[in-house]
């Protein structure tokens, strides 16, 4: 069963995370999402991409219950795939609009941060890099993308706090660019994507590289060590106990 749904209308591709119950990120979803974006990158008819979630979640984040069954080596390889995907979307040559239809937590927040523009529903949805609250650290890719969005000091305070931010708080911090009512999310996302699609493609890509390539270059300097440290902390006794308590819920 496919874990994503792809549709195209008027040069806009919409990629929907479709992994019940809460679009938790596992290896299959990462691989499908990567393959989808690679195809969209070379499709001349696609001028912009909308990334959203099916159901009431954008993404819960990493599928912790499933990943707890991984060996250290397998988990490390999975994290490399995931961080490679984040960097790929972050530097994707076409505009990517994050249409946050619900909670975007931890790895789900990182996926949102890789987009060029983020809209979020104003009702109940929360967004957070809350890893510290369950004893985990964060990848360097998540840190650098957050710093680009909100600035270094705000990123520092947010990561230390690990709070779940409402849409209004997220907009004030700069994690999201626009709040909309749930019933307006589709049309509002289409409008933003269409605005991007009207830009000259090569010029947009050039400007995006000027703005973002140095961030990925900085990530690449620390990526391997960051992942190894993440794995080390993930498998520590105290963090593991916390992870075992996390369940995937509707």
Would you kindly provide a written description of the structure presented here, covering whatever features stand out?
This protein is 51% helix and 17% strand. The chain is an alpha/beta fold and 250 residues long. The chain has a single domain (4-184), classed as 2-enoyl-CoA Hydratase, Chain A, domain 1. It is globular and about 50 Å long. The two termini are 20 Å apart. The mean pLDDT is 94.
Brief overview, please?
With 250 residues, this protein is of the alpha/beta class. It has a single domain (4-184), classed as Alpha-Beta Complex (2-enoyl-CoA Hydratase, Chain A, domain 1). Helices cover 51% and strands 17% of the residues.
The first-level CATH class name = Alpha Beta
Instruction: Please report the total strand number as a whole number.
Output: 10
The quaternary state of the protein chains shown equals single chain
Low-confidence stretches: none
Rg computed from alpha carbons, rounded to a whole number of angstroms:
17 Å
- Spell out the CATH superfamily: 2-enoyl-CoA Hydratase, Chain A, domain 1
Number of domains: 1
Strand order of the largest sheet: 1-2-3-5-7-10
How many angstroms does the end-to-end distance come to?
20 Å
- Which topology does CATH recognise? 2-enoyl-CoA Hydratase, Chain A, domain 1
Mean pLDDT: 94
Q: In terms of structural class, how would the helical and strand content be classed?
A: alpha/beta
């Amino acid at each position: 069963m496919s874990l994503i749904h792809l549709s195209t209308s008027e040069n806009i591709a919409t990629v929907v995370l479709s992994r019940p119950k809460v679009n938790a990120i596992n290896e299959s979803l990462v691989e499908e999402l990567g393959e989808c974006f690679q195809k969209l990158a070379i499709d001349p008819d696609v001028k912009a991409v909308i990334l959203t979630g099916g159901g009431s979640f954008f993404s819960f984040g990493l599928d912790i219950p499933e990943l707890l069954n991984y060996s250290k080596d397998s988990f490390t390889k999975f994290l490399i795939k995931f961080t490679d995907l984040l960097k790929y979307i972050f530097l994707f040559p076409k505009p990517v609009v994050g249409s946050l239809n619900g909670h975007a937590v931890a790895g789900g927040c990182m996926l949102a941060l890789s987009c060029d523009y983020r809209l979020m529903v104003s009702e109940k949805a929360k967004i957070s890099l809350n890893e510290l609250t369950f004893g985990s650290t964060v990848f360097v890719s998540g840190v650098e993308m957050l710093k680009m969005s909100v600035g270094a000091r705000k990123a520092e305070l947010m990561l230390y706090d690990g709070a779940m931010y409402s849409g209004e708080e997220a907009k004030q911090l700069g994690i999201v660019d626009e709040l909309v009512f749930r019933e307006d999310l589709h049309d509002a996302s289409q409008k933003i994507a269409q605005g991007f699609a009207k830009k000259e493609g090569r010029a947009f890509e050039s400007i995006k590289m000027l703005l973002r390539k140095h961030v990925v270059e900085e990530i690449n300097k620390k990526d391997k060590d960051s992942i190894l440290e993440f794995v080390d902390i993930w498998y520590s006794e105290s963090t593991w106990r916390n992870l075992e308590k996390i369940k995937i819920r509707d």
